[in-house]
Design a protein that fits this description.
This protein is of the alpha+beta class and 587 residues long. The protein folds into three domains: 181 residues, Immunoglobulin-like (Sandwich); 152 residues, Neutral Protease Domain 2 (Neutral Protease, domain 2), CATH 1.10.390; 92 residues, Roll (Pdz3 Domain), CATH 2.30.42. The protein has 15 helices and 33 strands. Strands 8-7-11-5-4-15-18-17 form an eight-stranded mixed sheet. The protein has a six-stranded mixed sheet with strand order 1-23-24-22-21-20, with helices on one face. Strands 9-10-6-14 form a four-stranded antiparallel sheet, with no helix packed on it. A hairpin with a 2-residue loop joins β17 and β18. α7 packs across α9. The C terminus is likely disordered.
Length: 587
């Protein structure tokens, strides 16, 4: 998953999705492990139409067969993989009921997210409930009068203590004129199937009125579905599809395959979302983005797309052993989240520059911003930051494994290239781990990661791990960057600032936030305005920053770049600070 605070990367095609043979749902209630009676012929009916939309709910029915009388224990996941936080989706369930034909069945709760249905005879059983969809969050479900999205982790119950490798059918019941979009295999106009529970809950759904079109990327179909309908202009849609066509091939080249037939970008824009922000959540053949409508059309959203698409390889398939298989009832901390998220972020930047979405100078600028972010954060080891993801620390290191992990990826890439005379790179490591773990139906360990790095470089990286990943030492920029003909320059710079946040779109530079205490607010700038010039300097000029800084440096505001690609300006009065400028000088 990735969150942006907006303004401040001849294929062998094969799709073999492995899961551990012993993947079993199991949780404990005290010392006793909960185990459901076996069930089969599983089907989920989800109703969202103009009637349920008035209640902002989904009507859900799960039907299945039992071979004998006994207790069927059905649980709802506590989290959605990729969003490393416990959400307890059972809290949104109302009106639970169970029947076998026309007769009601008794039930009670086995624990906070498990329903125990007392089945009295073999045959068909139906359980039903409503799920409240009022949470505008990638990992949850959300409804509007003409639209909804949901994740399978929110609605699809599973049998406790039974194998996860059961097939199931999903039927969507909705208004005849409304659309449905998902990555799940479609077998009829409103019918879909999944071969196991992991696939079932890894393919979110759009239902309602929304736009959708497609293009080819790397020889495969890329679909772009967006809500509200009409919110993204035709030219904006072409820009997005063009970006996807440029991003996929360089990412696929790292692993040597595209592991999907069709990939779907699901995008929701809403004025109620955090102003100027965007976030994405990855899935095996889709991703779900939620963003502030004020950033629609911003070409820098390509960074978010690149990050989430790369996850289709790194984390949805190749992932740390602690996350294999997924457990849906508990936290699954891993010290390797800096690889799952940080290395993904590095490759998102690389995909953008390799695909021609951004140029080299923009890549350097993004890297500069990450160095700046890490230098300002509290000192923390990458492994410790990874393990702390689930508790969301408030010391300023929450999510630092993104930027710091990305920078670690850059350093490893340079060092491997230098050691191998540019014959191997971090790409070599990624392919190695992908083939030796995911392709063999398992996760990878910390030891296996560093062994792959050592094989690529021809030497041990134990010291690097000890000092900069497991340890807290500052990254060795002065010794590593020169290996690639680069250097890091630290300059003390005073840069002017208006106290406004801007986001580029088709019409220009749009104001998305204004600091009430800033110079811009005093000048009458309001959210929604488009900046044309400041102090006589055209804001569309590529040299705007340099020209404006030179002209108004004496005013002492601060200009900084927020994480992952968007620019933000704000004005703490008369504050001076150090600003890291990364200057790459090629030999």
């Amino acid at each position: 998953m990735r969150f942006h605070a907006l303004p401040t990367a001849a294929l062998v095609v094969a799709h073999t999705y492995f899961f551990a043979a012993s993947s079993v749902f199991a949780q404990t209630a005290g010392p006793v492990q909960l185990v459901s009676a076996p069930i089969s012929d599983i089907r989920y009916d989800v109703t969202f139409d103009s009637t349920t939309a008035l209640r902002r709910t989904f009507a859900v029915t799960m039907s299945f067969s039992t071979r004998a009388a006994g207790d069927v224990l059905l649980s709802l996941p506590a989290w959605t993989p990729g969003d490393y936080s416990i959400a307890n989706f059972a809290r949104y369930v109302t009106g639970f009921a169970a029947t076998d034909g026309s007769s009601p069945l008794a039930w009670d709760k086995a624990d906070h997210d498990t329903w125990r249905v007392h089945v009295t005879r073999p045959g068909q059983v139906r359980v039903s409930f409503e799920y409240l969809g009022m949470t505008l969050d990638n990992a949850n479900s959300w409804t509007k009068p003409d639209f909804a999205f949901f994740n399978g982790t929110n609605l699809f119950l599973y049998p406790e203590g039974q194998p996860a490798e059961f097939s199931s059918t999903v039927i969507i019941r909705t208004n005849p004129s409304w659309r449905i979009a998902t990555g799940m295999t479609q077998t009829g106009p409103t019918t879909f199937t999944a071969g196991n529970y992991h696939d079932l809950v890894d393919m979110p759904f759009f239902i309602g009125r929304f736009d959708i079109d497609s293009a080819q990327a790397g020889g495969k179909t890329m679909r772009f579905a967006s809500y509200p309908a009409g919110a993204v202009s035709n030219s904006g849609r072409r820009m997005v599809l063009d970006q996807l066509a440029k991003l996929v091939p360089p990412e696929a080249a790292v692993f040597g395959e595209i592991p999907w037939t069709t990939y779907t970008l699901l995008q929701v824009a809403d004025s109620g979302y955090t102003p100027g922000s965007a976030s994405g959540l990855e899935h095996q053949n889709s991703h779900l983005d939620v963003l502030s409508n004020i950033v629609l059309g911003n070409p820098v959203l390509a960074s978010l797309y690149a990050h989430e698409i790369f996850h289709a390889w790194n984390v949805k398939r190749m992932r740390p052993a602690e996350l294999w298989p997924y457990r849906y009832d508990r936290q699954q901390p891993t010290p390797l989240l800096w690889i799952a998220e940080g290395i993904t972020d590095y490759y998102a930047d690389l995909a953008e520059v390799r695909g021609g979405v951004i140029n080299a100078e923009q890549f350097y600028g993004i890297t500069t911003a990450k160095i700046d972010e890490v230098s300002e954060a509290a000192v923390v080891a990458l492994e410790d930051a990874s393990l702390s993801a689930w508790v969301h620390p408030v010391d300023g290191t929450n999510d630092i494994y993104y930027s710091k992990g990305s920078l670690a990826g850059l350093l490893l890439d340079i060092m491997i290239r230098d050691a191998s005379d540019n014959q191997r790179s971090l790409d070599t490591v990624m392919r190695d781990i992908y083939r030796s773990s995911y392709k063999r139906g398992r996760g990878f360990t910390d030891e296996e990661w560093w062994q792959a790095v050592a094989r690529a470089a021809g030497r041990s990286f134990a010291d690097f791990d000890r000092r900069y990943v497991d340890g807290r030492e500052g990254f060795p920029w002065d010794s590593v960057l020169p290996l690639a003909g680069m250097r890091l320059m630290i300059e003390r710079t005073v840069l002017p600032n208006l106290g406004v946040s801007i986001s580029g779109d088709e019409q220009g530079r749009r104001v998305i936030a204004v600091d009430p205490a800033g110079t811009g607010a005093g000048a009458g700038i309001k959210v929604g305005d488009y900046l044309v010039s400041i102090g006589g300097v055209d804001v569309a000029d590529p040299a705007f920053g340099t020209t404006f800084s030179s002209k108004f440096a004496s005013q002492s505001p601060v200009h900084r770049r927020r994480p992952r690609g968007f620019e933000k300006e704000y004005s703490p009065a008369n504050r001076r600070r150090s600003w890291a400028e990364l200057v790459f000088q090629l030999r």
